[in-house]
Amino acid sequence: MNSEAEWRVSPWQQWAALSGRTVRAALRDGDLPFGFLAPMIFFVCFYVPLRHSMEAGGGGYVQYLAPVIVVQGMFFTAMSAGDRAARDTAGGMGTRLRSLPVGSWLPTAARMSANVLRGVVAVAGALVIGTIFGFRFHGTGAAIVFVLLALAFGLALVIGADLLGAITGDPGTGASVLLIPQLLLVMLSTGLVPAEGFPGWIQPFVRNQPVSQAAAALRALADGRFAAELPITVAWIAGLAVVFGAAVVLVEGRRK
To answer: How confident is the model at residue 9 (pLDDT cuts 50, 70, 90)?
Structure first.
């Protein structure tokens, strides 16, 4: 007769199994392929109509546009995370796991791991289409920071979206709640056009909101520079991660 030690599954094995389940579901549902293609579609949709007007004064619009496409890809990664968490809740996966000898943090950690992969795929899609149209990095170190900053921004968003999906258990509700803010933040940002292209009364918001700061920081990193927007963006990421992370701990603690 086997002892408990012989059949007990380690937390690492549990994490790997749960992460693999989420990744396989994302592949089966087409979420990962869509995560790669979506930035390409949105890049073309913005680049084609805006290129000539933005390049009238000189400069290449692709270098300006690509960073906000990366940021938008992180928003879509967060929406996907909320949808997956809501599906798990609606399907009773969370309830089943709480009845098993599985750490309360493991299901969330596994979803986070799969979502980071989804974020990597989104960044790759944005950089591939940007490179095709002429986007370039000017400095290896800054390029690495570019990718890490984008993924950190996405992870902060994912934590909040995952929590929303887990609480509501309704994919439709999570998508609706997340869609409007991301559209407003992207469209009312300096990611697509400079702040001067907006009415004067809204320019302070456009310049200082998190998408504008992140896009500016990524744009500078692509050019090999570490701009003033970089620490501001890091502060936004840290603030969002702390707030959403604390909310996750609170909610999971009440579910025990």
So the answer is: low
Q: How many residues are present in the chain?
A: 256
Q: 91: closest CA among 29, 166, 161?
A: 166
Q: What are the distances in angstroms from CA 152 to CA 49, 97, 167?
A: 30, 28, 23
Could you report how far apart the first and last alpha carbons of the chain are, in Å? 32
Asked if 158 contacts 112 with a C-beta cutoff of 8 angstroms, the reply is yes
Contact (CB, 8 A) for 175 and 83: yes
* Rounded Cα gap, residues 175 and 6, in angstroms: 43
- How does DSSP classify residue 9? P
Q: Which residue, 44, 26, 22, is CA-closest to 35?
A: 26
Distance of CA 124 to the CA centre of its chain: 13
Render pLDDT for 216-254 as a digit per residue (tens, 0 to 9). Answer: 999 999 999 999 999 999 999 999 999 998 888 787 666
Rounded to 5 degrees, φ, ψ at 103 are: -55, 140
State mean pLDDT over 94-113. Answer: 67
Asked if residues 143 and 108 have their Cβ atoms less than 8 Å apart, the reply is no
Going by the DSSP 8-state scheme, the letter that residue 134 receives in this structure is: T
Q: Look up residue 150 and give its two tokens.
A: 């984008």
Distances (CA, A) of 209 to 84, 108, 113, 213: 28, 28, 27, 6
Q: Under a CB-based contact definition with an 8 Å cutoff, are residues 69 and 130 in contact?
A: yes
- Whole-number Å distance between alpha carbons of 9 and 142: 41
What pTM, to 2 d.p., does this model score? 0.89
The contacts of residue 194 (CB under 8 Å, 6+ apart) are none
